[in-house]
Amino acid sequence: MERLDKILASQGVGTRSEVRKMIWAGRVTVDGEICRSIDRRLEPSEHEIAVGGDPVCYRKYLYIMMNKPDGAVSASNDSHVQTVVDLLPPSLRRKGLFPVGRLDKDTTGLLIITDDGAFAHSVTSPGKKVFKTYRATLDGALTEEDIKYLSDGAVIDGGEQCLPAQVAVLDAENFVYEIKIREGKYHQIKRMAQSVGHRVIALERTAVGALRLDSALERGEARELTERERTLPLTN
Description:
This protein has 236 residues and is an alpha+beta fold.
């Protein structure tokens, strides 16, 4: 059971103070009847709540897929630069949202945003070893020896040992590769490329576990995960 004002604020209807004003003004109904009690406690999934006649579709947690653009920071807020949460449309904004893991500022592609900490942990915990799939464009071709070295587990600058990666050629002429890794070391793909004498020109994450980036999403666009997508296995 939760307070009515807290329920509405959690769904992005407004701030707690804005929501209270709506309730006092008689704009909020519960099961079709005006409710002016901000501290009324109820189970939101068992009642029909509306504001100004518009029903509030209660969701305890939000699960969002974004096609992250170049230049946006993987953070909830930043006073100096635009964050991925800043890019969300008003219909998907609410307090407590954060990106699941991080993508570098210049890396694009699949980013999950949620307010469910347990779900985020299941994706990012090192012990889960969830594969993240990237499309990497390099400044030159990888040799068979390079691919074997990365596949066996590269040692990157500073002596850090990486877990074995999966590397496949997507476009040999343009030096495009699919690289799958099960960890998230700082700038890992870029440092792996450096370990075999190459530089990453462009990097896009295309999948997290079995969840693949929706090709219909333009850069910077976002949508809620479907129920099927949210329950996809985290192993490929």
